[in-house]
Structure formats: C-alpha cells, structure tokens
Amino acid sequence: MKIYYDENMPFAKEFFSELCQLDRGTNGHEQGELVAFSGRALTAEQVADADVLLVRSITEVNEQLLHLNEKISFVGSATIGTDHVDLTYLEKRNITFHSAPGCNAISVAEYVLSALVVLAERYLFDLSSLTVGIVGGGNTGTRLSEKLAALGIRYKICDPLLEKKQAEQSTVNTTDGSVDNRAYVPLSDVLACDVISLHVPKVEGGEHPTYKLLNAENLALLRDDQILISACRGDVIDNHALLALKKAGHGVKVVLDVWQGEPNVLESLISYTEIATAHIAGYSLEGKARGSEMLYQALCQQLVIPPKYQLTDFLPSASIPAIEINQDFNQILLNQLVKMVYDVRRDDAIFRQQLFVQGFDNLRKNYPVRREFSAVTVTLLSNTFSDVPHRLGFSKNV
Ligand SMILES: NC(=O)C1=CN([C@@H]2O[C@H](COP(=O)(O)OP(=O)(O)OC[C@H]3O[C@@H](n4cnc5c(N)ncnc54)[C@H](O)[C@@H]3O)[C@@H](O)[C@H]2O)C=CC1
Ligand SMILES: O=C(O)C(=O)[C@H](O)COP(=O)(O)O
C-alpha cells in the first residue's frame, strides 16, 4: 500500500510505516511505501499511485489533485478545518475522508490565553475584570471557555447553529458528550465584550456564513479599549477593512494568527497588531501529533486492524516536566506558569523578524517545539492552595 503524507505531520513514520507493508495493493503484491511530500507543492502526478493520502490544511484536495489516481480509497487531513477539501468530490468518488476534529483545540485555547496574559502584562489590566466574547462554541471555543472558567473570567458565546440545535432538542451533547446547557448570545453581544476571540470555520454562503464575518461595518462599532483575537481562518476578518480602521487611529488591540490570502499576508497590517503569528495557534507538539494519531486510528478502522500505537508511545518528556508551587494562585503566578510553557511573544518575534526572510510556510515548517500545559506536572505544596493550575490543564502528580 502506498501512503503519501505531508512532511509536516509529526510521528507519521512511527504511526504509518507498518500499515504500508500490508499487502493490499491493487495487484495483490505491490511494494508498500511511505512517501513524504511538501504540502503546498503537491501535484496530481505525484499522488497518481497513492492508496492513502494524508494532508494538512495547505493542500487543496479536489478533482484537480486526484483525477489521475484511480485507486485511492482514503484521504485524511490532520487538521480541524476542512475548507481545503472538496468533500462532495470525495463522496462522489467513494473515497473515505477523515479529519481530526478537536486535535489541536487545546493548543488554540492556550495560544489565546498566552496572548491575554501577555497583553495584561503589557497594559497592566486585571484579567478577571474582563468579559471574553467567543464566536463559535465548538471544540476550540469550548476549550477556551473552560480555561477562562478555571480562572474565573466571564465569557459569552455566540453560536447560532448550536443555539438552534439546543432549541430543537431537549438535550444537545457538546463535543465532549456532556449536555449543552450553555446560554448563547447574538453576535452583537459578543462584539461588545472586552475581548473578542474568533473560533469559527471558514464558511462561504448559507444561513450563517463566516466569510468576512468581521467587516468594515461591524469593525467600526468596536471600542478603542477592546481586544480582537483571530486564530481560526484568515477570511473571517476582512483584513483590508481592519487595516483601514487601524490606519484611521482606532485603538482596538489586534492579535492575528491567521491572515487572508495565506501564505501571502497583508504586510502593512502587521505593524498595527499587538501579536502577529504565522497560523501556528494549533501547533503544539501534542496538537499536531494528535492529528497524526487520529488519522492512524481512522485508517486502522478502515483496514479492520486494531491500532497498535498511541500518541503517548512517542511523545517526549517536556524540557521542564514538573514544578512545585508554594503560593496561592494569582495573576502573577498565572503569568509565570503560562509563559513557562508557551510565551506567544516568541512566535510574534519570529514572525516579525523572519517572515520576509524565510517566508510564511517555512516559519510553519520550522516551528520550534511547543508543548501544552498538560506536559508539565504541577505539585501544590499546600492543600490550601487553590487548584487553578490543574483546572487550567496542568497535570497532577498521581
Ligand atoms: N489557527 C489555527 O492554528 C487553527 C485554526 N482552526 C480553525 O478554527 C476553526 C474552529 O475550530 P473548532 O472550534 O475546532 O471547530 P468546531 O467545528 O468544533 O466548532 C466551530 C463552531 O463554529 C460554529 N459556527 C459556525 N458558523 C458560525 C457563525 N456564523 N457564527 C458563530 N458560530 C458559528 C459551529 O456551529 C461550531 O460549533 C476550524 O474550522 C479551523 O478553521 C482550528 C485549529 C487550529
Ligand atoms: O487544524 C486546523 O484547522 C489548523 O488550522 C491547523 O493548525 C493548520 O495546520 P496546517 O495543516 O496548515 O499545518
């Protein structure tokens, strides 16, 4: 079996090498092969003989890519977003498709938290006094809301699709299977919050499009003291309208991980951002590797074989695997804890200094290792200290 995978999928060799050796080629005796490719440059000729294709978000999977291939049976994307995949075409060709819902949702939530901690320090504000407006109450929005709840920070969620589901059914399960009894608010409420964090897929058309959800009209209603964070898809904010707003002197503080037209970026917008990064919010090692693991599990299921490996077989220990805390929780401790694991200023500095040297895609390809909070075990030295670190996602000593 020939498995082609994006070179930017951690542990792909570890997960998929053995599956290639399964003798399921079309002629029954085909040599197994595991082939890495560069996601943006992939051609139809390259994948003409693939049985399995494993991509990331920068590869458009459509008729143009697969028209020369008559035997492919499985396409996987090690990502949450699926806007790069023509699902209708795959269905028409009876090709199984799997993405990796939720794989890097914790990573995105920790990116947003790191941005908030950095801005709170830069502008000396009390995080617990803020209300965060979350647009999109799916995996990433929910992981963020859980961390905010752990910190006692108020939040509101706008998600008309989940709100409708909730109204139609007496019980709606959230992404983790629990009953959804959240109160949803309209977009206008969320856009009035101190912090606005966007967590929607790219959707063009339909009842609830997200393409340019933030546009000249509603951006103009923002207050100077608000923070706008986007770590979902570049097209959700009209970048030219945002630039015009900032050029006109608007004070909204902007954190952008995603950009319209990636890998090309509206260069003049960068200097108006507080934090700017190269679409790496989901790039914790765990987040990316979970994507590989989820596709491995899905492919094993398709091949009707039990999965032999899991992520914990391959994840290395963190560089600071354990710490002890000898004081009760406060914002200074939060700042130290979050930045110890992930300081978003590192990625912001790399972006500003290296974007025009390395290019957007290379910044992502050469992304330094970043771990999630769970890679660090926190021991509280007194049982009177509040348990916030563990509720934030740090591991407990068991
Ligand atoms: N920057 C990065 O590295 C990453 C970006 N993403 C992006 O974030 C998006 C969201 O990820 P998840 O939360 O995991 O997806 P999800 O599918 O779990 O949740 C998305 C939620 O958005 C809601 N939604 C859709 N249209 C909406 C609208 N017009 N207004 C309000 N809510 C709306 C949906 O009902 C759904 O609950 C992904 O589709 C992907 O594009 C995801 C992971 C990493
Ligand atoms: O999962 C998603 O959706 C994302 O946005 C990923 O973080 C994108 O990573 P790449 O697939 O572009 O490496």
Q: How would you characterize the largest beta sheet?
A: 6 strands, parallel
CATH topology name of the largest domain, in short, is Rossmann fold
Please state how the strands of the largest beta sheet are arranged side by side: 7-6-8-9-10-11
Structural class, by secondary structure, is alpha/beta
Dominant shape: globular
Total strands: the figure is 14
Number of continuous helical runs: 15
Distance between the termini: 42 Å
Q: Quick one: CATH superfamily of the largest domain? A: NAD(P)-binding Rossmann-like Domain
Task: Pick out the low-confidence regions.
Answer: none
Task: Please tell me how large the radius of gyration is.
Answer: 22 Å
Examine the secondary-structure arrangement and name the CATH architecture of the largest domain.
3-Layer(aba) Sandwich
Question: What labels would you give this structure?
Answer:
cytoplasm; Rossmann fold; 5-stranded parallel beta sheet; NAD; binds the ligand O=C(O)C(=O)[C@H](O)COP(=O)(O)O; Erythronate-4-phosphate dehydrogenase; 14 strands; pyridoxine biosynthesis; 14% strand; globular; Ribosomal Protein S8, Chain: A, domain 1; alpha/beta; 6-stranded parallel beta sheet; 15 helices; single chain; 398 residues
Structure characterization notes:
The protein is α/β, with parallel strands linked by helices and 398 residues long. The protein has three domains: 2-99 and 284-312, Rossmann fold (3-Layer(aba) Sandwich), CATH 3.40.50.720; 106-276, NAD(P)-binding Rossmann-like Domain (Rossmann fold, 3-Layer(aba) Sandwich), CATH 3.40.50; 318-396, Ribosomal Protein S8, Chain: A, domain 1. The chain contains 15 helices and 14 strands. The strands form three sheets. A six-stranded parallel β-sheet has the order 7-6-8-9-10-11. The protein has a five-stranded parallel β-sheet with strand order 2-1-3-4-5. Strands 12-13-14 form a three-stranded parallel β-sheet, with no helix packed on it. Strand 8, helix 8 and strand 9 form a beta-alpha-beta unit. Helix 4 crosses helix 12. The model has no long low-confidence stretch (mean pLDDT 95). Bound molecules: 1,4-dihydronicotinamide adenine dinucleotide and the ligand O=C(O)C(=O)[C@H](O)COP(=O)(O)O. 1,4-dihydronicotinamide adenine dinucleotide (NAI) binds next to helix 4, helix 5 and helix 6. 1,4-dihydronicotinamide adenine dinucleotide (NAI) is lined by residues 80-81, 102, 104-105, 108, 135-141, 158-162, 175, 199-203, 208, 210, 231-233, 257-258, 279, 281-282.
